[in-house]
Design goal:
mainly beta, 3 helices, 450 residues
């Protein structure tokens, strides 16, 4: 394996820099001290999906789906069939009562859908000549069906037979889907979330009905996630985070991330008075049921579901937009960015003096609808008691392009993918050294010693 290159990364362009972001070589809390580069793609790798405890699949703009062993880094299968880039990928596990088997479903810009067996590499089913490309996929395991979203919403059974569908009237189509209780779905379309209900008739046929349209966002919805059985959340390009009741679809909390205006000089004020939309855009949301972690421009924002308040944030966590995040625990998290880095963070108390925060950054938090604010008056983030910061504990430098996403396999490591066409398998160096020593001793015992 290649040895991890330790050290900081220079900021790209004229970006606000913080000394803590140059962590240097001493990273005692970063256990990813070995890496292995996985080659096989010849274009941008955008997607990673975990198949089981030891395998993952990667896909991207070259139309290939590659299956990897994360313990050894071996490429197990190469799935060929799509002629254009992959637009969505998910796993589909079907149980027959005795055994279960996990397959892969992929969608492509070639307007086709495919079902793959990752064990053999065979394409089991395919649907071509769709009206448009599919942008997102959702598996409803309880009903043993799956849903594709794009210009239309389609429900398919495990044999790739169309059960029902509805045409959409949004120019952008459906960009994200989540499952809700009582056989309902939430679909993000531009600024709206549309609630659909699946009905199973006595003859086992399915029908799909639109029952509600939520129009509370002021800009395009960029992220949609399940929080738990009773909650889901959405984030918009304008920095709006909304927490929804998953049963009656009412707003439980509304958070608007507002950015500061610079008054350092007249020239700077003109240049920075209106921030770029990407600086406040919520690019990604993730949750552990207690906290919601939002990627906001180049920053990170941690929101408590229980108290409905900001509990920690870092305005500039990366040199460029954050693309993917993960909560490792209630106090540890990870993020990756367009700047090519993967970073580990720990929630800590604010040092004195605290990191500067403008009155406008997380400018308000209120309960109720954004256009009908009846809650308490606006709060500045520093007025919220016990606000904390995110301390950088690890900086994983290996990719030369934007890191699109990552998947954690616990003690078996972390897999990242990038626009540099590569995957990197990050390993716990101490654990790997211990495993190699054990393997060597076992081999010596088998051979009767030296």
């Amino acid at each position: 394996m290649l040895r991890w290159i330790l050290g900081g990364r220079e900021a790209q362009g004229s970006v606000e820099k913080s000394p803590v972001l140059c962590i240097g070589e001493e990273q005692p809390k970063n256990w990813f001290t070995e890496l292995q580069v996985l080659k096989g793609h010849f274009d941008i790798v955008r997607f990673l999906v975990q198949i089981d405890d030891f395998r993952c699949a990667s896909a991207g703009d070259d139309g290939l789906i590659l299956v990897w062993n994360v313990e050894t880094g071996e490429r197990l299968q190469e799935l060929r069939g799509h002629s254009q880039q992959i637009t969505a990928i998910t796993t589909f596990t079907c149980n027959n009562g005795l055994t279960s088997h996990t397959s892969l479903i992929t969608a492509s810009s070639d307007r086709s859908l495919s079902l793959w067996d990752p064990d053999t590499g065979n394409r089991v089913q395919t649907i071509s000549d769709l009206q448009s490309s599919v942008k997102c996929l959702l598996v409803l395991e309880r009903l043993c069906v799956w849903v594709s979203g794009g210009e239309e919403l389609c429900v398919w059974n495990k044999d790739f037979q169309l059960q029902c569908h509805r045409q959409n009237h949004s120019d952008t189509g459906i960009t994200a889907l989540v499952e809700l209780p009582k056989n309902c779905l939430a679909a993000a379309m531009d600024k709206e979330i549309v609630i659909y209900r699946l009905t199973v008739s006595t003859d086992s046929s399915l029908s799909l009905a639109e029952i509600r349209c939520l129009s509370d966002h002021q800009d395009q919805i960029r992220a949609l996630i399940n929080v738990n059985d009773g909650l889901f959340a959405s984030g918009s390009h304008a920095g709006e985070l909304i927490l929804w009741d998953a049963v009656d679809w009412n707003i439980l909390a509304y958070e608007h991330i507002l950015w500061e205006e610079s008054h350092a000089s007249p020239q700077a004020e003109i240049r920075l008075a209106a921030p770029k939309p990407s600086e406040m855009s919520i690019q990604h949301l993730t949750t552990n049921g207690k906290l919601i972690l939002a990627a906001v421009g180049s920053g990170l924002y941690v929101y408590s579901i229980l108290t409905k308040t900001v509990v920690a944030y870092r305005k500039v966590a990366h040199d460029s937009n954050v693309l993917h995040t993960m909560l490792l625990s209630d106090s540890e998290l990870m993020s990756c960015s367009e700047d090519g880095s993967v970073r580990m963070w720990e929630i800590q108390d604010l040092p004195l003096p605290a990191e500067p925060a403008s009155p406008g950054f997380f400018g308000m938090w209120t309960f109720g609808r954004s256009n009908k604010q009846t809650g308490p008056p606006s709060k500045k983030v520093m007025d919220v008691p016990n606000i904390r910061t995110l301390e950088l504990t690890g900086d994983l430098i290996g990719h030369s392009g934007a890191v699109q996403m990552f998947v954690s396999f616990g003690e078996n490591g972390l897999v990242t993918c990038s626009t540099d066409h590569l995957l990197i398998l990050w390993k716990n160096g101490e654990r790997q050294s211990h495993l190699r020593s054990l393997a060597l001793f076992q081999k010596l015992e088998e051979n009767g010693g030296l």
